[in-house]
Design brief:
It is a single chain. By secondary structure, the protein is of the alpha+beta class. The chain has 3 domains: about 5-110, Nuclear Transport Factor 2, Chain: A (Roll); about 115-230, Zincin-like (2-Layer Sandwich); about 230-349, no CATH class. The protein is about 40% helix and about 20% strand. The strands form 2 sheets. Strands 1, 2, 3, 4 and 8 form a 5-stranded antiparallel β-sheet that branches. The longest helix has about 30 residues, at about 280-310. It is globular, with a radius of gyration of 22 Å.
């Protein structure tokens, strides 16, 4: 980068100041634009890029005549001790807009409103659906999503969200680009490349054209956010229980889990929750299904009241697994035996 160019130099200074503390204080520090309602309410929603990896500014490029708006590209990556092996996490894109009265003469802005400005929109209940290129409106799926949001709120006696913005794209990569993530590390293998994300209060990405508006899993996260559960088994488990996972129903995930258990007959439940369970992406699907299985079993045993108590637990998965017998008093034998027996029963239930 040629930082002898005044605009580039000032934008680089702005970017470095933000990356040193990439949080909501950027607005009060005058680093983030307030020109759009999206920037005022949300700011930077590409939070998964900030995982402690060093950030390097790759370039500052203009967008047209006058250059009052620039694109800033940042790579989040680590390197080995030789500095030859790079481990990238994400390639992020920001907009920098001219703001003469701000500390650096420029402010950062989210890509979301610029990228989606011309996307068709539909309002259904509490949801505004934004359709990316190639995505079409399904009235049946949209209505299902709107009703589902209200039903989940009633089930757990929480206030429904005032409003949700759902951005629909064909793949997970396409949906991530809306946030300004031109690359981010994802799972590899068959069945990957599609999915959803909740990226801030009231914003959902759906990158699965086959599922579209009916990506119920992420809607559960959006509705139950007010519970502020620190129990990861409950948090993902309740979303699988009510909304399925990866485009599959709860029962279909149980079938996947049974097949996985048969492939790894010696694997323990705590082994599945370890940092490196066997099976690659199949272990990921088994993990989601197991969380759903646990939530389903607690509900069958003690209803919503039992789930609400379970949601209040905090700790590591291992800590929480040790407490499962307190929530499933009918459990006979070890937790590992219960896991396999309950899976077989649930497949045939």
């Amino acid at each position: 980068m040629d930082t002898s160019i005044v605009e580039v130099r000032d934008i680089v200074r702005l970017m470095r100041a933000y990356l040193a503390q990439p949080d909501s204080s950027a607005r009060t520090r005058g680093l983030w634009s307030k020109a759009s309602s999206f920037d005022i309410q949300y700011g930077d929603v590409a939070r998964e890029a900030y995982q402690g990896f060093p950030a390097t500014i790759l370039g500052v490029t203009g967008t047209g005549p006058g250059d009052s708006v620039f694109i800033v590209k940042v790579i989040h990556a680590g390197a080995d001790s030789s500095r030859k092996q790079i481990n990238p996490l994400a390639l992020q894109r920001f907009f920098a807009v001219r703001a003469p009265l701000s500390p650096f003469g420029w402010q950062l802005s989210s890509p979301v409103p610029r990228i989606t400005h011309n996307w068709p929109r539909r309002d259904v209940g509490r949801i505004t659906l934004h359709y990316g290129p190639g995505q079409s409106y399904s009235p049946q799926k949209a209505m299902l999503a709107a009703r589902f949001v209200d039903s989940v709120a009633r089930l757990f006696s929480v206030p429904p969200p005032k409003h949700l913005d759902v951005y629909l794209a064909g793949t997970l990569d396409e949906s991530q680009r809306v946030l300004g993530l031109d690359f981010s590390v994802e799972n590899s293998g068959a069945g990957t490349g599609f999915g959803g994300r909740s990226v801030g209060e009231g914003i959902i990405l759906v990158g699965d054209a086959a599922v579209g508006e009916a990506y119920l899993h992420e809607l559960v996260h959006a509705v139950l956010g007010p519970l502020k559960s620190r129990n990861s088994i409950f948090g993902e488990g309740v979303a699988v229980w009510l909304g399925g996972s990866g485009g599959k129903s709860l029962k279909e995930t149980y079938t996947q889990l049974r097949d996985y258990q048969r492939q790894y007959p010696e694997l323990s439940l705590s082994g599945l929750f370890s940092d490196d369970p066997p099976g690659g992406y199949n272990a990921v699907t088994a993990l989601y299904a197991t969380r759903g299985l646990i939530v389903d079993a607690i509900y069958r045993h003690s209803g919503i009241a039992g789930l609400q108590r379970f949601a209040r637990l905090s700790g590591s998965p291992d800590d929480i697994l040790k407490l499962l017998p307190q929530y499933l008093s009918h459990m006979n034998g070890s937790v590992d035996q219960w896991w396999r027996t309950e899976t077989a029963l649930s497949v045939n239930r």
